[in-house]
Amino acid sequence: MIAPQSRAERDPAAKSKTDAVYESLRDAIVQGKLKPGERINMNELARTLGISKPPIREAVKRLEADRLLVSRIHAGATVAPIDVAEMRGVFLARETIETLVAQLAAERMDDTRFAELEDTRQAMRDALDAGTLEKMAELNSRFHQTLAQSAGHRVLHDLTEQLLLTIRRYRVTVPMGDRDWRSVVTEHDVIMDALRRRDPVAAADALRAHIGSQAVHEVECSY
Fold first, then answer.
1. Are 160 and 145 in contact (CB under 8 A)?
2. pTM of the full structure
3. For 74-86, what is each residue's pLDDT tens digit?
4. Which is nearest to 63 in space by CA: 95, 34, 99, 103?
């Protein structure tokens, strides 16, 4: 039996509004503008955005699935807490998934995706030179998302995106400085070199080393 469509699926305008609310709330949570435990006031959101509640409810459900929001009886939807103890597990998962992503990307990446990675890497260098470190987290996520898209499996891209969202939230509490981001760019250079040579083993090794380096900074800094 075919499952009934949601309102967002039946109504393209509602879907567009849902996406806009989802992206707005997601960015506010990831950037730390909405703090852990802060309540999402749907009535206020509806008034502020000038839309009805159904698209907001749809967006909240998606954010709950992303584990960025949690719903409690009598409290409604609130921003999920940041579980520092779980970050080790997040990096273990990221190492496993993105190592496979890099291996597959080295075998399957086309010239268009490679050019996108090059553009993102250059944008990261430009942001560093300009001292606009606030752009780095988003650009870094773009780099890894493009890499995941190149692997050719939607599930790997979705898992990568979910892990990146978790890590970006955590970076609000453990910020990275200029030296840290320059290390990231250098590590990306090694990944890009392996991809350029179409070497899946080298690409996997470079990605594994990159995640390990980030884990040392971001997890160990919390203890």
1. yes
2. 0.79
3. 778 899 888 877 8
4. 34
